[in-house]
Amino acid sequence: MNEMDKLESILPEWLETSRLQSADGTVATYIPELSKAPQDLLGIQIMDKSGRAVSAGDTDFSFTLQSISKVFTLILALMDHGEDAVFSKVGKEPTGDNFNSMMKLELIQPAIPFNPLINAGAIVVSSLIKGDTAEHKSARILEFFRELAANPELDYDLGVYHSESETGHLNRSMAYFLLDKGILQGKVEEVLDVYFRHCSVKVNCADLARMALVMANNGTDPLTGKSLIPKRYVQIAKSFMITCGMYNGSGEFAIGAGMPAKSGVSGGILTFVPGRFGIGVVGPALNPKGNSIAGVDLIERLSREFEWSLF
Ligand code: GLN
Q1: Does ligand 1 lie within 6 Å of residue 216's CB atom?
Q2: What is the 3-state secondary structure (H, E, C) of 74-89?
Q3: pTM score, two decimals?
Q4: What is the C-alpha to C-alpha distance for residues 127 and 268, in angstroms, rounded to an integer?
Q5: Which pLDDT score, from 0 to 100, does residue 95 have?
Q6: Active site residue 233
Q7: Is 70 considered catalytic here?
Q8: What are the residues whose beta carbons fall under 8 Å from the beta carbon of 236, sequence distance 6 or more?
Q9: What is residue 262's DSSP assignment?
Q10: pLDDT for the residue 107
């Protein structure tokens, strides 16, 4: 039996086992609109390079990309400006702390955010997207996401967008801090608007799996043959996904699953097996590190069974 056949036969049962973990997680509430997501929801889709997809659970559910979008805005900023310009404004390190200290953003000189996947770093990256106006920048990002997902229908969840835009005081204060330090340039409210919008793009598991498949295939959509991302930028994004993609749970996930991944506070996880599979998961109940509790459980078990770990 090949791997996809085996996945097809075990996935529904394995998903139901992982779903039980949801009871121990918490659905995010700090963006009020996100709190409406069902606690025990879980869905997964796995797609191989021929386009064959295997899925289980609540794959019809739509959710917002949230922090998953940061991987792709980073890639777009790299495509717009190149490595030197981008990494003069945002760092490459997985942690906000030095090896032996409690130093935080306010204390370091220059005040460059540690990496592009933490909020401060992603807000800086949003400011680097080319475009004449905030609308133009957002339109370019949405178009890029649509191409990656091979879904021209991708659009914003305006309810989530407004909900975060109205309550995102912490992100707003970070952006003004970065303006003061000269790291952010331009109109802060416009930068924040670009950021909130790309976080609110609505997807389902199939969209995530297809985006992940492009990453798994070094930037080329294997189904169309179209090159969407230069290989070097996939390599950079992949390194960030391994080291910082699951917040403070990245080390644990590297040991448990060993796959590049990026999670979002809506419960989405985009992950992949390089050269082989793109995977999209959603489970809104989060563990204390902010990652889908049931989603992590399912991916880790699959990785062990099929030996997907890179390490
Ligand atoms: N839009 C969210 C925020 O800025 C993204 C955070 C996340 O997904 N972890 O807080």
Answers
A1: no
A2: HHHHHHHHCHHHHCCC
A3: 0.96
A4: 24
A5: 65
A6: no
A7: yes
A8: 74, 78, 83
A9: E
A10: 62
CA 258 to chain centre: 16
Q: Is the CB of 192 inside a 6 Å radius of any atom of ligand 1?
A: no
- Which residues of the chain form beta strands (DSSP E)? 26-27, 43-48, 53-57, 63-64, 155-156, 201-203, 261-263, 268-273, 277-282, 285-286
Ligand 1 site-directed mutation target among 27, 117, 265, 291, most atoms within 8 Å of CB: 265
Residue owning tokens 């303006």: 179
pLDDT at site 290: 94
pLDDT of residue 106: 62
Length of the chain: 311
Domain extents for the chain? 3-65+203-306, 67-201
Instruction: Encode pLDDT of 91-133 as tens digits.
Output: 998 865 544 444 465 666 777 888 999 999 999 999 999 999 9
The pair of structure tokens assigned to 240 is 């960030």
Structure tokens belonging to residue 287: 């563990």
Q: Are 277 and 2 in contact (CB under 8 A)?
A: no
Which burial class, exposed, middle or buried, applies to 306 when counting CB atoms under 10 A from its CB (0-12, 13-18, 19+)? middle
Q: Which of 267, 211, 261, 263 is nearest to 61 (CA)?
A: 267
Which residues does the chain have with pLDDT short of 70?
95-108
CATH classification code of 67-201: 3.40.710.10
| CA geometry: angle 219, 88, 113, nearest 5 deg | 90
Fold of 3-65+203-306: Beta-lactamase (3.40.710)
Residue 188 is predicted with a pLDDT of 97
- Cβ–Cβ < 8 Å for 87, 110: no
Is 90 in a helix, a strand, or coil? coil
- Confidence (pLDDT) at 1: 77
Give the C-alpha separation, 45 to 204, whole Å: 9
